[in-house]
Amino acid sequence: MLHKTRGIVINYIRYRETSIIAKIYTEKFGIQSYIENGVRSSKGKNRIALFQPLTLLDLVLYHDDKKEIHRISEIKAGYPFKSLPYDILKSSIAMFLDEVLNKTLKESNENSVLFDFLYHSLIFLDETEEHFENFHLIFLLKYAFFLGFSPQDANEMLIQFREANIMIPFDSDYQQLMNRLILADYQTPVAINRGARNHLLEIIILFYQLHFEEFGEVKSLQVLREVLN
């Protein structure tokens, strides 16, 4: 049966000589895998650019609940990015966010609220022209709500760290900044210097690792730090 839905590309792997298997977070079916034949050949029906991580898509899909890998009937860009792939800071943030999503996004059912959050967060990042240096911090704190462990405040984070015997500098100054970020939206200006921003990110990542045992190392973090510095 054919279904229309929006999607967000998470990643893809090469399959055989010219095909790929793409992992796409769909509005209607959650996270799913799709095989696309011949996309890596010069005669491919659909351009490989459509399967770059975090691309926003409009899709017509063949979906069968009994299958683990599905097929795409029609595909086009749902929102062509204007700056995200070309701005080095934005693209570095996007690479980091994609790695986090790849580690944590397991929802295999419809969740329109989560989908809208992700979809419109990426559009905001693409469209905003300034003051997005804290975007990834605010994104992670908001995304944690959908994962079920959103902190009410910095003190709650500190208590959980202590209960897990995790030691990290988290004094009152950092707690005040964290509380401001927890309450902020993407347009809220929060003045944070580079060193503090990097440390707050370490704290948030540690909080994710506390709740996701398989979260592991974030490989794109070093690139993000270098770009932000």
Characterization of this structure:
It is a single chain. This protein is an alpha+beta fold and 229 residues long. The protein has two domains: 2-77, Nucleic acid-binding proteins (OB fold (Dihydrolipoamide Acetyltransferase, E2P)), CATH 2.40.50.140; 88-228, de novo design (two linked rop proteins) (Up-down Bundle). Helix content is 41%, strand content 20%. It is built from seven helices and five strands. It has helices at 88-104, 112-127, 135-147, 154-163, 172-183, 194-211, 221-228, and strands spanning 2-15, 19-26, 30-36, 56-62, 69-77. A five-stranded mixed β-barrel has the order 1-2-3-5-4. α1 runs antiparallel to α7. The longest helix is centred in the C-terminal third of the chain and has 18 residues, at 194-211. The chain is globular and about 60 Å long.
Contiguous uncertain segments of 5+ residues: none
- CATH fold naming of the largest domain: de novo design (two linked rop proteins)
Task: Compute the number of helices.
Answer: 7
Total beta strand runs: 5
> What's the domain count?
2
Text of the CATH class of the largest domain: Mainly Alpha
Could you report the average pLDDT, rounded to the nearest whole number? Answer: 93
* Secondary-structure arrangement, i.e. CATH architecture of the largest domain: Up-down Bundle
Gyration radius, rounded:
19 Å
The amount of beta strand, in percent, is: 15-25%
Measure the end-to-end span.
50 Å
**Main sheet?**
5 strands, mixed, barrel
Q: Kindly report the spatial arrangement of strands forming the biggest sheet.
A: 1-2-3-5-4
The dominant shape is: globular
Order of helices and strands: EEEEEHHHHHHH
Helical amount among residues, as a percent range? Answer: 40-55%
What structural class results from the helix and strand content? alpha+beta
